[in-house]
Amino acid sequence: MKNKVFLEGMRDGLPIGLGYFAVAFSLGIVARNAGLTPIQGFIASFFCVASAGEYALFTSIQAAASFLEIALITLVVNARYLLMSTALTQRFDPKTPLIHRFFIGFGVTDEIFGITIARPGYINPVYNYGAIFVAIPLWSIGTSLGIIAGNFLPARVVSALSVALYGMFLAIIVPPAKKNLVIMISVLISFAASYACTKLPLVSNLSGGTRTIILTVLISTIVALIKPIPESEEEENK
After folding, report:
1. Which of 143, 76, 131 lies closest to 104 in space, CA to CA?
2. Residue 118, Ramachandran bin (φ over 0: left; ψ between -120 and 50: alpha; else beta)
3. Computed over its alpha carbons, how large is the radius of gyration of the chain?
4. Sign of torsion, CA 95 112 172 79?
5. Which of 59, 97, 133, 227 has its CA 20 to 30 A from that of 30?
6. Alpha helix positions (H), the chain
7. Is the sign of the CA dihedral 232, 234, 236, 238 positive or negative?
C-alpha cells in the first residue's frame, strides 16, 4: 500500500518537477551572476525550494546584503509556506509522528501543497515523499545547470535568459490580478512604491533587500486591514 501511494506521489510530482527544472534553470543564471558555484546553487535550491525566495536570496547576495537582511527577506518572501504548512496539519491523522510533519513542512511548495490538499481523507506522508523525491532534485539540478550554462554561454544569451525569470513572475501575478481587483491594485501600488523608494532621499540609501522587506510587510498589512478576505471565501478555498 505504501509503495503504491509513494508511486502516486512520484507520478503527480513529475510534471511539477519538470516545470521546476525550467524555472530553476533561469534562477541558475541569477545565481551565477551572484557568484555562486554549481554546488552552492544546488545546495541553496535544495534547502530553499521557492522561486521568489531564491530570487530574493541570490539578488541579495549579489548586492552584498548582510546576513540579517538576507535572512529577513527570505523569511518574509517565504512566509506563505508557514500558512500552507499550518493548513496541512489540519489534514494529518492525529497519530502522525512529528518527524513526518517536519519533513513534509520542509517540502511544501505551492504546487505540492495543491496536489496534497486535493486528496481526500487524511494526508499520507508517503504520498508527499513521492512528490518531493522527484520535484526537489529536479529543482536543484536545474539551478546547477543554469549556473554551468551561464559560465559558458555568451553574455548576451545569459542576459536574455535572465529575463525569463521576470516572465515567470508575471505569469504568477497576472492571472490572480485579472480575477481580483484588490490584487491588481496591490500589485500596481507595489510597482509604483518600489520605484519611488529608489528615488526618495532617505529610503533610496537603504539596500534593495531592506526596501523589499519594508514594502512587503507594509503593503500586505495595509491591504489585509483595509480589504480582508471574507470568511465565506476562506471557507470555499479550504
Report:
1. 131
2. alpha
3. 19
4. positive
5. 133
6. 2-33, 38-47, 51-62, 67-77, 80-89, 98-106, 110-117, 125-152, 155-179, 181-197, 208-226, 231-237
7. negative
The residue assigned the cell 545569459 is 158
Q: What is the block-wise mean pLDDT of the chain (238 residues), using blocks of 10 residues?
A: 87 86 84 91 90 85 86 81 80 87 86 83 89 92 89 67 60 77 88 88 74 79 80 50
Give the span between the Cα atoms of 229 and 180, in whole angstroms.
11
pLDDT of residue 172: 61
In 3D, which of 162, 127, 193, 144 has the Cα closest to residue 43? 144
Instruction: Report the DSSP beta bridge partners of residue 123.
Output: 92
CA distance 95 to 93: 5
User: Is residue 122 left, alpha or beta, with left meaning phi > 0 and alpha meaning psi from -120 to 50?
Assistant: beta
Distance CA 212, CA 56 (A): 9
Is residue 127 within 8 Å of 28, Cβ to Cβ? no
Q: What cell does 211 get?
A: 526596501
CA 53/CA 71 separation, integer angstroms: 10
Torsion angle, alpha carbons of 7, 12, 15, 16, to 10: -110
Q: What's the grid cell of residue 219?
A: 503593503
